[in-house]
Amino acid sequence: MHDSTNETAVRVRKHILPDVNTTVVCLGECQEIFISAQAREGEDALTVFLRVASVLDALDATVVCQQVFGFTNRGGTGLGALHEALGEGRWPITWLEGDTEPLCAGTEVWAVSSATVVPIEVDGIAIGTVFGNGCGRVCRLGGLLPRDRDADPMAQTRAVLDTMQRGLRAADLDFADVVRTWFHNRDILSWYDNFNRVRDAFFNELGVFDRLIPASTAVAGNNAVGAALTAGLVAIRPFNPATVTGPVVSPLQCSAMDYGKSFSRAVEMRFRDHRRLFVSGTASIEPGGRTAHVGDLERQIDLTLRVVQAILESKGLAWDDVVRAIGYIKHPHDVPATRVVLANAGLDHLPLVLARNDICRDNLLFELEVDAIAAARQF
pTM of this prediction? Predict the structure, then answer.
């Protein structure tokens, strides 16, 4: 267990257990809990969810949101297992379909204790939650789907973006408070450029390009209802107006805007007693914007790790400050090799779920997103 404390109310504790990696961030009375659970060989969804439930019960925690990777939910079977293990709470679930390949299946849960979590509903559907953590008003939307799944993908994208805005308004927030987004697009390689056009138009309408462009991840992902995409976001409005929120450049890469993609490499929030860093989905892209090390998995992962580490270090952070991470792998058979590279880099205890997802370029084999939190005295 890693434990770091300081004279403020902020403490970060990490519990590294077999296949249940738990980080507890104490902000005064509120505790934020980040759980990463990868399926073991031959393990089904119910067993994984029960392991998560044991952590939540031990910490008396309420779920804020959940992401599920790799397990099937066709016919509601997966959701039934989730409800059996965790109950039928009203939190957002982003469920990315798979073929139950155990090496690429798992779940990630964000929860809190000693804080009131309020569901956010749009059209009678729970699409998010909102809570106060002592530092700000926090909203997590997830599992966002278009209502008309027969519409073309661009229309579905716009519908999802509009639902984001409606959910934020229901939480008494707006898009100016958004620090991170996720988009999981079916068959992403066939329409990624069109997706970006719709997102750009939406951002222009809201004036996002004149304010903070959120960190983001956009990778492939199938959903049980066959929609063109599913999405989510994190929005935080600090209680203290002196809190600094801003984009973070990548020391080893150019801006994504340089090649027409509207997201920040990372976004930092600097509170009085701690900092949060949201690092976008990051892959093997050279400073000029081209894919590096085409066809070489090990070198692509190595460059990705160096890029993310440089972003962390630019803000005085380290891998030990990462509270959650998702690694997206193009080919399931690359999971063992990926774990070897991570272990060789000393990152075998990273709070990570590995998932099988195509990335936004056909020649990218691996992508990594991370969030990091650390007490103020570490800077």
Answer: 0.94
